[in-house]
Every structure is written in C-alpha cells, then in structure tokens.
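Name: L-fuconate dehydratase
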Amino acid sequence: MPPTSARVTAVDTYDIRFPTSRELDGSDAMNPDPDYSAAYVVLRTDAGDGHEGHGFTFTIGRGNEVQVAAIEALRGQLLGRPVDGLCADPGTLYRDLTGDSQLRWLGPEKGVMHMAIGAVVNAAWDLAAKRARKPLWRFLADAEPEWIVRQVDFRHLTDALTPEEALDLLRRGREGARARRGRLVERGYPAYTTSPGWLGYDDDKLTRLAARAVADGFRQIKLKVGADLEDDVRRCRLARAAVGPGVRLAVDANQRWEVDEAIRWTRALAGSGLYWIEEPTSPDDILGHAAIRRAVAPVKVATGEHAHNRIVFKQLLQAGAVDIVQLDAARVGGVNENLAVLLLAARFGVPVCPHAGGVGLCELVQHLAMFDYLAVSGTTEDRVIEYVDHLHDHFLDPVVIKDGHYTAPTAPGFSAAMRPESIARYTYPDGTYWATQDDKERTA
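Structure predicted for L-fuconate dehydratase:
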C-alpha cells in the first residue's frame, strides 16, 4: 500500500453492557451476577479507505464507565497519529502508551489504565490487519520473525527470555508452517466449552448442556466451583456421568480459595477425573499457585486470565506455578504484550489455553492461539481455546464453531467490530434497551 498522509481523526468510546445477570449467564463463586460489558473504542481516520480500528476490554458491569474514562484519557496520544506509521509498527504506540510518565503512575502496567491501553492497542492491530487485507492470525503468522520480536517489550523479561531467544523460537516455529496452515483452515483449532458450567444453573440445565457439548464435538467442558464443597462434588459427578469417561472435565474456582483450602477442595473433587483446577487462589499469589500445583498433581493448575502483565506470567513460569497458561486478549496491553506471553510460555514449554467467553473475547483470542500454532509452538496438543455460547450475534464477524473447533476467520482484522444496532441498543445508560429499564434495573 503506497504511503499516505492520513492520520487518526477521532477516538470514539462506548460503555456497552449486556444484562447477562438476568439469566445467571457467567455466574461463578466470586461473581454471582455479572452483566457482561465492554469498554469499546473505535479509531477513525481520514485515509479514505473506510477502515476503522475497533477494540475493547471486558468488564462485568458496574465500573465499566471508569474503564471507558481510562480509554478516553489516551485520546491525546492518538489524535493526529500517522496511520501508516501506526499500522507499520503498532509496537511504537504500545511503548508510547505504557511509557507515559504520568499515566504510568496509575499502574504501572496493571489495572484499569493498562486494560485501557490494551483496548486501544488492539484497535490499532485491527486497523493494521484490515489495511493489509488479512485476518489478524494470518497478518501475524506472515510477519517476519525479526518484526515480531520488535513488537515485544523485553524490559524485565531478559532473565527469562531474551530477544535472541525469542527470535530463535520464531525462526524454528516457522518450520512446517505451510502444512499447519492447511490443517488449520481445514479443521480449525480445538475448543472447550464452559457453557454448561455456570454456578447459577440447576442440575437439569447442567446435564443437558454437558451432553449437548459432547454431541457438538467438544472433548472438554468446564464447571464453576467454589461456593459449596458438597454441592461441587455432586455437580462434578453429574457432569462426569453426562459426558462419559473420554471427555476432559476442568473446574474453575475464580480465585475463591485460600491455598490450603484450594488443596483440600481440589483433592475432594479429583475423584471425578479432573483435568485442571483454574484460578484456585489469588491471581497475584505466585508462590501459592506453586504450592497448590505440587499438592494436587496430577490435576493440573491453570491461571492467567487476571494476570496483570507479562512480568506476572514470567514469574508464574519461573516458579513452576502453572501447568496451563491462560492469557486473556484484553486484560494485558493488547496484542504486543500477549506476543510476549506466548513466547515466554514457549520458552518454558508450557501450553497456552486462552481464556475467552465474556463479550467478544472468543472473537479476539482465536487469532492469538492460531498464530501460536502456526508460528510459535507449532502444535495444538493439550491446547484448547475456551468457548462460551453467548453474545456472538452482536459482532460483525462472530466466531464459528464446527465439531468442537474454532473455524479460522477469513475476514480482515481482529474480529472486534460490533454491530451498530447492538451498540445503539446496549450503550449504557441511554441505549434503547437500558432507557426502557427502571432505575433499579439500570444500576443492578
């Protein structure tokens, strides 16, 4: 594409909330009544090609307006930025935003401000992939290893991963990529589903959805646990009976337990043949996760969806605290930081099984896992992407699941663009849905 003088001309934000708490979709022991929400951003330009960059970060209701305000605080760093430079090197934007000497104080590189950076950075990658006329997974997989390495911030990582080691991983990762791409396009990427397992579902709904998941081709399901041990033992037995012995069963405590409690609870549930225990304790407790992992083996320990940044992932891996890395497409600083996480996991030989669900997380994270398969790890063995069957109809390029696999997206971009009618209906508090609710419903 020939160079232009086009620049970013607008940064539009939206507070979008879906009333998922009404049906207890998304309910777990720590978050019993979430309203799945997105702090959503659109980068508009004067390029004349019609392309926009769409991005968001995921929240669960109240406080989404705070997340939107954090994105708006970045507007001054974006307006007027040359489009060609932004798309040629998104890493420059990432470093400019994480390096802002005043906004950085609010983290550094963690929490609401860092999630805002992730939303904006993801929007930039969406724009870059659209202008390249490629889905993001292919845009990344086609890139030269040297360019990918330049997208990664190696500050505070070099005791675990150096740029030279990352480059070697990427060069070796390209071997056999052509054949893997053919298999990906033909078969897709393995998925598991959490849809049967929300804590608010009754036994009939759990068993019905678990059996349906197996019929739909899923070879792993996940249940939420952590509210009541006796009830969790019973629910796990019901799920195992519904799916049979050949399907993996994972459970997720959503950070509910103390370390000793996590060990005791996991051992009690292990009789149902658990594959992993997810977020058994505080996501910040590296040593706690390591202690749990030692005590509950062969049940695997999985975590990462609430890890603040690449440094936390580095420590989890260095401490031998995880068997499964669960990156999130929107919690850390966007694609750039998730590239670091994928490379760290490859360096330590730990599989990545991304967190998804939420609002649009399935749409985003599929691209990162597919890039990992094609250009980093080179395998889908013991690797699955989470899938939750709701809210996909609000996206212009929703995920497609076929026989328990994510179908490789073909539309250019990061699959992040929401339907205009969904934005108009669910923008809070004045969208057409929320405007019809009484004050109690609007603040529930």
